[in-house]
Specification:
The complex is a heterodimer of chains A (about 850) and B (about 190). Chain A has a 7-stranded mixed sheet, sandwiched between helices. By secondary structure, chain A is α/β, with parallel strands linked by helices. Helix content of chain B is about 35%, strand content about 15%.
Chain lengths: ~850, ~190
């Protein structure tokens, strides 16, 4: 069923880089004009006649039973149109099928300050706000949990009864290979503790949603969401209405960074209120509410033990992590696995043991933020490598080069590696920064630090298990020459609309302006799972390429009959169709479509993308696989004042293996934005909480829920950046492309810590690296103590019996050796659809399947 | 506000707590009736339907809502509307001339200085105020002028380069940002 090109690749335009007309060129993004003129319609820019405004009543206590909600004072106010309480939305929801633990409005229990428990609709936002403040809630306080350590010592009361144990939401232990044997082979074993603070996405647009009821059980929801498909599913479940009667339209997002990937209670509430009142309902969160919605970076503590030989190669690694999850599951189960899953993708690790645990705490839920669960262990790993390099007397850049994973291999934890341009990345930043001349040789107070990373180009598996495409594209063409492209993808600013358009325009040989996009609309567009896990360029790109190629082949078939030339000879370029040997015989693209429409009738094609099946077959192997991985290397130059610990970053050199940049301006923008956000986490960003006194119910409140006090980098904080695009042309991606939106963030934090060490000899094993931490290290150094700042001990936690998985090097088959729950037939291989997919994979590396 | 109160009027038919007036926005007269305590941000977005002006905090912390009042950048989320009646208000919608983009808009679109585009209107307006004062601002001046604006997408550098590019375009100078901003730095061999 694999579609074979009807025109041989070497005779088609746009198949080799030199012949590409749009792909690879720095064209203006297709939504660029709308963004600079203010025409882009974000969710809060929409309004409808008779629209009501909603405000949520949010818990002021961190953990309590709700005794009573008194709405009478609110209802007595003029202008109140309606209310909602939890009992009206009794079905739970949540992004992960294993943790559907949220209610649109709390029913019996509130679990964090900010947990919504009632909604008020009024004719104006002012009135709704005043009424929400007038609601009186009686609480019966429960013990509150502020940290992983407190969760371990406070198993009761449980924040959620489904937790693996007490208030430990999820525990995982995966052991690949002979970890102990590996340590025995080591000449040097390092053990270190690290801490990585949580942070908020701080997308500039506050979340906003608007619903319009169209019948007694039919509703349209416009929302600032990265994942309209998942919102669609959550709405169907919570509203108890078939999904076919719910339409979700993802507006352009004013930034997401992972923070708009969950289905949110406010999205459900606007839909329910619209259906209840029979009129449009809208909500826009305040910035403070956004901090309490959160879903940001998990605070993670790590204990990392790695064995090295004298030559710098690694023998074994044992990583333990604890995640402070907040009050709900969110993506947390996936986040937990992600704190271990990608450790093996950069450097060869023959044996690897990962133990992770996520705690429930009475704080806003953590979830996915740019890099999802992987920046924390990457920080630990890359700082520890720097320490190992010093212990072994090996240059830190060389140490990394000696350990590089090879292309087209399978890691110890059964991840399939595609192309890897990490050597080229390291070479570029080493040469660009003058590393060999300057590293370790700069005057006191100045230093260089290096770090590397890898990231997924799309998660291999969908959030909920199914056999269907992860991305779908439909193309409609007609005699006007206009090409309409329908896809569920969602624009966050990352440029997904431009990539989709460019791929279709490239294949059909037409201009970007000849394409009309319809995206992110669950009624009109085929499903795309959403803008998360860096999946869009590869998955949407492949589906779009397939749909466009089918359209081109259909047109070519009709035109070849019409012109009486071989179909294989036809070229589509510059809005023309012509035989390669006789360019003068050209016809316009719209004329070619007329010929095809006359020949075949109404024209339309589809494209689908399903990732290749990953080789791992053990429980937990679903997190980590990706069609291919991107790679990054960074060098930071830092200047530290030894008297105060205050430091400045002079310059960042970053190289990113992007496979191929479909639009270098957009790709560089993603890399620069990642560097910026990485610097924010490295230097200052903190989603931190404090406990109020007991008379205020010991509420755990955000220390700084405002944009001024939550410190992030401004214009004046940005160092110079030198960005290298490393192109490795991965066959798994469209035109060779891999991701760029998340990976380049990852090396920044460890590179800063390593640079500070080079500058003043102080190890900072935690982020953000506040100047006072550097100063503390400097003072310790002067007093002859260890010049290190970081966590002193790791929580005492029993991760349980590990799942034993033999590595490819041990001759393993990808299955666990000791899992009674595993089927001997293997995981998820029973369906005929999967069989088709496996067969297709043998023939076609990108696993692009037709649906017809 | 109660229905009773709304009916009270201090004269000329406008209820207490409300203001009826005409705002001069982008050279056009907008008749508006609004709650007197509403900020310029709210009146622009909700009464004039000029939703190009954005909000990221409504506390004067992010700069997304910046507009020009008599040529000076103002955070519209902190600006009481009644104080700007009779003054000249400029928003992002007023930057383009007919269907032609302003040089700042051209430069931001072509250089990737706008990603999600949410902070863009505020930044464009502050940059426009700068360019009206200085035809050739340097990096430090641009950084200083835009220090009250937060952008979470770009890492800021492209914004600075785009402002310089726009300034050059306005001057009729053919200066343009370095090639590496369009294709990446040359990989050292």
């Amino acid at each position: 069923m694999v579609k074979v090109y009807s025109v041989p690749p070497d005779e088609r335009p746009g198949e080799t880089a030199s012949e590409l007309r749009i792909v690879g060129k720095p064209f203006r993004r297709v939504d660029g004009r709308a963004k600079v003129t203010g025409q882009t319609r974000f969710a809060d820019d929409l309004q409808f006649p008779r629209m009501v405004h909603i405000k949520l009543v949010r818990s002021t206590v961190a953990h309590a039973r709700i005794r009573n909600i008194d709405l009478s004072a609110a209802l007595a106010m003029d202008g109140i149109v309606g209310t909602l309480v939890g009992e009206e939305l009794p079905n739970s929801f949540g992004i992960m099928p294993v943790s559907e633990d949220e209610y649109a409005l709390a029913i019996d229990t509130v679990r964090f300050v900010g947990d919504p428990l009632a909604a008020i609709a009024a004719v104006s936002e002012d009135i709704a706000h005043a009424a929400a403040l007038a609601v009186i809630v009686e609480y019966e306080p429960l013990a509150t949990i502020a940290s992983v350590a407190e969760a371990l010592t406070t198993p009761e009361p449980q924040i959620h009864e489904y937790a693996d144990e007490g208030n430990i939401h999820k525990k995982v232990s995966l052991k690949f290979g002979d970890v102990e044997g590996g340590f025995e082979e080591a000449d040097l074993i390092l053990e270190d503790d690290f801490f990585y603070e949580g942070s908020n996405h701080l997308a500039l647009e506050q979340h906003s949603s608007l619903a319009v009821a169209e019948d007694d059980d039919r509703v349209t929801v416009y929302s600032s969401t990265q994942c309209p498909h998942y919102v669609h599913r959550a709405l169907s479940k919570t509203l108890d209405i078939p999904a076919s009667r719910i339409r979700v339209i993802a507006c352009s997002n004013g930034g997401g960074f992972g923070g708009k990937s969950d289905p949110f209670n406010h999205e459900i509430i606007v839909a329910k209120m619209a259906l209840k009142l029979g009129r449009p309902a809208k909500i826009t969160l305040t910035r403070e509410e956004v901090f309490y919605c959160h879903r940001g970076r998990h605070p993670v503590q790590m204990h990392l033990k790695t064995g090295f030989r004298k030559d710098g190669t690694m023998t074994s690694q044992h990583l333990q992590t604890t995640l402070d999850g907040g009050a709900f599951g969110s993506y947390g189960v996936a986040s937990t696995f992600y704190t271990g899953a990608l450790q093996t993708t950069t450097y060869k690790l023959p044996h690897y043991w990962f133990e992770g645990a996520r705690a429930f705490t009475n704080k806003p839920p953590c979830g996915p933020k740019r890099g999802h669960g992987t920046p924390q262990p990457r920080f630990a790993y890359e700082v520890q490598l720097d320490k190992a390099a010093h212990e072994l007397g090996i240059d830190p850049a060389d140490l990394r080069l000696r350990n590089l994973v090879e292309a087209d291999t399978i890691t110890a934890n059964w991840l399939q590696i595609g192309t890897i341009g990490l050597k080229e990345c390291i070479d570029a930043v080493v040469k660009g920064s003058g590393w060999k001349e300057h590293y370790g040789r700069l005057p006191e107070g100045r230093g260089l630090g290096i770090a590397c990373s890898a990231y997924m180009t799309g998660a291999g598996l969908p959030i909920y298990w199914n056999h269907m495409p992860q991305s779908g594209v439909q193309i409609k063409l007609d005699r006007s020459g206009n090409v309409a492209v329908f896809c569920g993808e969602t624009e966050l600013g990352q440029g997904s609309d431009s990539i989709l358009t460019a791929v279709v325009a490239e294949v059909l040989g037409i201009g970007l302006k000849d394409i009309r996009l319809c995206v992110g609309d669950t009624d009109l567009t085929p499903v795309d799972l959403g803008s998360y896990s860096s999946r869009v360029t590869l998955m949407v790109g492949q589906a779009a390429k397939q749909a466009a190629e089918k359209a081109r082949d259909k047109i070519a078939e009709a035109v070849s009959e019409h012109m009486e030339v071989a179909m294989e000879s036809l070229v589509f370029a510059d809005g023309q169709v012509f035989p390669a040997h006789e360019p003068k015989q050209r016809i316009g693209f719209n004329e070619a479509v007329v010929i095809a429409e006359s020949r075949f009738g109404t024209l339309g094609t589809t494209g689908s993308y399903i990732p290749p099946r990953a080789p791992g077959r053990f429980r937990g192997s679903g997190v980590g696989p990706s069609p291919t991985y991107s790679y990054s290397a960074a060098v930071l130059a830092v200047r530290v004042d030894p008297e105060t610990g205050v430091y400045d970053i002079d310059r960042v050199w970053i190289a990113h293996d992007i496979g191929r940049a479909l639009n270098p301006v957009l790709a560089l923008g993603q890399i620069e934005g990642s560097v910026y956000m990485g610097l924010g986490e490295a230097m200052m960003e903190e989603q931190a909480f404090r406990r109020l006194p007991k008379r205020l119910s010991s509420a755990l409140v955000h220390k700084m829920p405002s944009m001024l006090e939550y410190k992030s980098l401004g214009f004046h904080d940005m160092p110079e950046m030198t960005c290298y695009l490393i192109e490795t042309d991965d066959v798994r991606g469209p035109y060779g492309a891999k991701e760029a939106g998340q990976g380049p963030l990852l090396p920044i934090m460890p590179a800063l810590s390593n640079a500070i060490f080079d500058a003043v000899g102080v190890r900072v094993d935690q982020v953000p690296i506040h100047p006072e931490l550097v100063l503390k290290g400097l003072q310790a150094k002067r007093q002859g103590r260890e010049a290190r700042v970081g966590p002193e001990k790791f929580p005492d936690i029993n991760y349980g019996e590990p799942l034993i998985v033999h590595t490819p090097g041990q001759g393993g088959d990808g299955r666990a050796a000791n899992d009674p729950k595993a089927s001997r037939k293997g995981v998820r291989s029973a369906s005929g659809t999967m069989k088709d997919r496996d067969e297709a994979l043998k023939e076609h590396s990108s696993a692009t399947l037709t649906t017809d | 506000m109660s229905a009773e109160k709304r009916q009270k009027s201090s004269g000329n038919g406008v209820p207490d707590g409300m203001t009826a007036s005409v705002l001069n926005v982008n050279g056009e007269a907008y008749p508006v009736v609004f709650p007197t305590h509403h900020t310029l941000l709210e009146v622009l977005r909700e009464e004039c339907n000029l939703t190009g002006t954005k909000h990221g905090c409504e506390l004067g912390e992010c700069g997304a809502c910046a507009v020009l009042v008599d040529g000076q950048p103002v955070l519209s989320c902190l600006q009481i509307t009644t104080d700007v009646i009779g003054k000249s208000i400029e928003t992002v919608e007023g930057l383009q001339v007919d269907n032609d983009l302003h040089p700042l808009q051209e430069a931001f679109a072509d250089l990737g200085a706008a990603q999600c585009g949410y902070c863009t209107p505020g930044i464009l307006m502050v940059a426009e105020a700068l360019l009206q004062q200085d035809a050739e601002p340097d990096d430090d001046q641009i950084t200083e002028a835009l220090s009250g604006n937060i952008c979470r997408c770009t890492g800021y550098k492209r914004i600075i380069e785009a402002v310089k590019w726009a300034a050059a375009k306005k001057r009729g100078d053919d200066w343009r940002p370095a090639d590496e901003l369009f294709s990446g730095h040359e990989i050292p061999q």
